[in-house]
Amino acid sequence: MAGDDSYLRIERVTKRFGAVVAVDAVDISIGAGEFFSLLGPSGCGKTTLLRMLAGFETPDEGEVYIDGQPVSGQPPHLRPTNMVFQNYAIFPHLNVARNVAYGLRKEKLPRQEEDRRVEEALEMVKLGGYGDRRSNELSGGQRQRVALARALIRRPKVLLLDEPLGALDKKLREDMQIELRQLQQSLGITFVFVTHDQEEAMTLSDRIAVMADGRALQVASPKEVYNRPTSITVADFIGQMNFFEARVSETAGEEAVLDAAGFGRMRAKLGGAALQPGASIVAALRPEKLTLSPARSDGAANAVEGVLEAAAYLGDRSHFHVRVAGLERPVAVAAQDWAVGGGDGLDEGAPVWLTWDNDSVILLESERR
Amino acid sequence: MADSASLSGPAPAASASRSAGLARTFRRSETLRGYALLSPTLLVMALAMAAPTAMTVALSFFIQTGFEIEATFSLQNYQKVFTNPIFEALFYRTLWISGTCALATVLIAYPMAYYVAFHVHRRKLVWVILMTLPFWTSYLLRVFAWKVVLGYNGAINSGLMSLGLISEPLEFLLYSPEAVIITLAHAWAAFAILPIYVSLEKIDKSLLEAAADLGDGPMARFFRVTLPLSMPGVVAALFLIFIPTFGDFVTPALVGGPDGLMLANIVQKLFGKLNDWPLGSALSISMMAVVTCLCLAILWLSRKAKERLI
């Protein structure tokens, strides 16, 4: 592993179930102490990939290295990883303390030392004094904490979490996210976290791998995945996005001028992309990067006129749909204020102007959608 | 309520309202409805189970004089049951045979149930039905089949002789306590497989993955997760075999020989040729009491074991 500081390396790992390719030549490197998320819709292969890290599945091709050691031949009980299961898998015949102490058997600790370690682990997940509880006396959130303590007590090199917050209600989930993040930072253990919830992944992670159809489409920080998605699938999966078919009409320095249906000319920052005039591309725009106003305002690089079709007030922000002539779908706009342009807000059917900067436009390769 | 009152037609108002009141009580009370549903079973149980048991209890306190049963209260039958050395010896033998049989059957049944629960993924029902196959033939037929296998000129003896391993038939195979154990174990196997299978099938497979993840190899996983979680099935299987085989008399009569005779054979004789119904009753009631105590002891032990585990 000379010259490679990645702690957990997934190298061209492929897994097939019959004719289905669950994980398709995935390459990911995760650093020590990183909070890493595998994000994707159900069936994208994220859980299969996690189970290969734990040793419950063996890759058909490729290799997984943990701390420089190839682990493919190692059964789960010999791996330096521990897992928090989706359903928590709390042993029903053991109480909380015995559940947490389960993985300490091989360490053959004296009883007192074992009890101390268990209490320490329980306190870490804020369940101090719960050791004597039966497993069926626990709430969903407490079960999740027990599962976490049980995995962490073994001081794993990598902690694997399979949608651990999926079964909790929204409020509890948000509290647990913060706690989980704090716990990870204080322990410095590498976390690999599987989720289909993009908000959760963005809140928690240092980096995210966005997965679809068994492939890792983009591996980057939450900010980069949101602001600089590299493909339409990623852009579509993370947050909301407007897509416009366009053609490059000319490039000048850092800027490109696009010819987009319904917009006419649109200016966009190239951002390092090499585009030839005449190339077909997709221009993507986040709803919150668009500014809605009742009259045309000067200064913005791009502007287009439309008609307000629908408006929804969500409290902390408002959503608008603007119909632009020549476009199949209305343009989605998000604004913090309901009262765009003053007053009580615009009526549906009112003529409006949309403006946006040239660096808000994300240029994506067109692909079959 | 209105329609049930109108259903009773032009009956006097008072009786109509009373029947409506009864109907209401019946509909409201879950207990009453429960007993109504149970009533056919309760009736059969009362006639076929409670009444004969009560009669047996009563009979056990009477005295047999010649051909007459004297209806005077006496404890002399119980005195005979608990002091006669023959009964004592037979009691220990019966305990040994049915206890060994229950343990052996559970030990044999467990791997089978385990295999179907964990390693068969399709057509499990077919496997379960196949395991109950011995039950498709009559009990007597199965006992006779073992006579053919274990007998003097039986399959095992002639097989071993034709291989030249023995020069004359092994006589201990048939007509021995071991023959009774083998026959009973085979006859009751399905009763052990099914409850164990059900309790194994219920185990969440992710618990085994969690155990593996926490550092347990296959053996440790079995003894720390699978076995404790399947204990209810194991205890049920032990009971289901121990209780009926403790009172079995057909198998020992056919394959047990004089050394394989069990307590129930004596009970049968007391009610038959020996014609001492009160003593037979006292013996049956004592057996029942002993079996109950033993089962309670097993239950208590398994509960203690469970607590120690926690």
Descriptive keywords:
A: Rossmann fold; OB fold (Dihydrolipoamide Acetyltransferase, E2P); 2 domains; 6-stranded mixed beta sheet; 5-stranded antiparallel beta sheet; 20 strands; 35% strand; B: 310 residues; MetI-like fold; 14 helices; disordered N terminus
Can you describe what's shown?
The complex is a heterodimer of chains A (369) and B (310). Helix content of chain A is 21%, strand content 35%. Chain A has 369 residues and is an alpha+beta fold. Chain A has 2 domains: 6-237, P-loop containing nucleotide triphosphate hydrolases (Rossmann fold), CATH 3.40.50.300; 242-365, RNA polymerase II/Efflux pump adaptor protein, barrel-sandwich hybrid domain (OB fold (Dihydrolipoamide Acetyltransferase, E2P), Beta Barrel). The mean pLDDT of chain A is 87. Chain B is globular. Chain B starts with a helix and ends with a helix. The A-B interface holds A 54-56, 75-78, 81-83, 85-87, 89, 91-95, 98, 102-103, 105-106, 134, 150-151, 154 and B 204, 206-207, 209-217, 220, 224-225, 228-229, 306, 309-310.
